[in-house]
Amino acid sequence: MEATTKSIKSNLIAWLTFPLIIFTMILFVYIYFVLEKKVTNFFDNRLKASAKSIEYSIGIKNSKLFVDIPSFSIELLSSNDKGLIFYSVVDEENRLLVGYESLLNKRRLVDEEAIFYNTEYNDYNLRIVSYKTSLYSAGKAYNAYITLGETTEERDENIKYVLSLLLIIMVIVIVSTVLITLVAVSEGLKPLDRLKRIIKKRDERDLEPLFFNAPKEVEDIVKSINILLERSRETIDYIEQFNSDVSHQLRTPLAEMKVKLEFLYDKDDKNYIALNSLLNNMSHITEQLLLYAKTNPNTINLKRFKKQSLNAICKDYSLKAAPRVYKKGFEFAFENIEEEVFIQCDQILLESMLDNIINNALHYAVDENGKPMGTITISLERHNNAIWLNVKDEGKGVDKKLLKTIFDRYYRVDSKKSGSGLGLSIVKQIATLHNAKVQAINENGLKISLIFDIPKHQN
User: How far is CA 43 from the centre of its chain?
Assistant: First the structure.
């Protein structure tokens, strides 16, 4: 099983969308860490400012440090009514001057620079600032260690808020990216879509160059297609010329043999009769083979097709065919319709097709003694959105099981009778060239119908 090839559109969307989504996610992570740092710095600065307010309340009395600040003022300075505040001020001897015991971790302090860290205290997660400060009195330095911590609810809420905003923005950016990519790719591929529609609407046998106003990239494709069409036309022209040459080379010796045979005319000579019949059969088979090759849908030149009246073609053909039919002992009829029907066609091919159907009727619409049976009728009928061109005889018809096979090449209903076996196969080919369906039914004889899709009022 062959691997499925992805379309250009899906590849473009994938190559444009996935890198943009990955870039957006990386950018999201980067912005998140940057904003988290900004939020942390903001709260740390506020926490340090609150700690400074405690520092301003430290004094020296009787050669000892003291702190003169109410606890509620610290809470007002820092917490903003969210979370809890824990604080302590410790002197050099590790005596608690104010606040909560065991809050200070001296091992973390290296110098007088403030340090920030996260810790757990009394089952609360705290963000703590600690630093050392010195006061001087009578030339003596008094050291104090200030520690202030707050629970992290407000920080976490702000970070979650920022994170949710980033997620919303990321989703909007990704969705917008996908939509913009879809629109951009669709717009970019419109010339290819138009080219595809133009080619699909074309008749498969139309080899005229494509004229399409397109961007340079698509224009190169159109040029390549036109080169291929030109080569196909040249091939068809060559085949037509070859058929013409073969036709001439085959017909000429047969015609010469028939002329020479006429000099030996003797209606009672069995050899003459057999040879004349053989030459006639060879001429017929040659003509049928050439016509079969000529009507091949893959090698026909549609320039020969013109808009013509189907009524007029059938009427003219009936006038030409009637004498031949009467001569064989059949009756002949033509039934027209009032509606004038126009189709794109090649009159010569249509008449050749009718010739083959008539010849088939003349050949098979006979009884056991070879006597002609009834009337051969050509008729036009309107059936809803289709025009039917019928050729009907009043013979014995064809076995119902064989109706679908009579249009096969080299098939003959009665193998004992002479013929090329190409007649109805040629009929089917010519019908296909004219975008018509062909069918055969038994209706008091054999009725062969060509069905043209022509909606009412189209003509």
Answer: 56
Give which of 329, 304, 342 is closest to 452, Cα–Cα: 342
- Region of 248 (left: φ > 0; alpha: ψ -120 to 50; beta: rest) is alpha
Which DSSP helix (H) or strand (E) runs through 245? helix 216-262
- Count of structural domains, the chain: 3
> In this structure, is residue 175 part of a structural domain?
no
**306-309 and 140-151: which strand pairing?**
unpaired
Q: What is the pTM of this model?
A: 0.51
- Dump pLDDT digits (tens) for 356-414: 899 889 988 898 888 999 999 999 999 988 999 999 999 888 888 878 788 876 555 55
Looking at the structure, do residues 220 and 336 belong to the same domain, yes or no? Answer: no
CB 107 within 8 A of CB 50: no
Pair 447, 440: CB distance under 8 Å? yes
The SS3 of residue 100 is coil
Q: How far apart are CA 195 and CA 226, in angstroms?
A: 12
Rounded to 5 degrees, φ, ψ at 93 are -85, 10
Q: Does some domain include residue 33?
A: yes
For position 244, which CATH number holds? 1.10.287
Distance CA 306, CA 158 (A): 80
For 434, list phi and psi in degrees, rounded to 5: -100, 20
Contacts of 247 (CB under 8 A, 6+ apart): 290
Calculate ∠ Cα 370-375-379, nearest 5°: 140
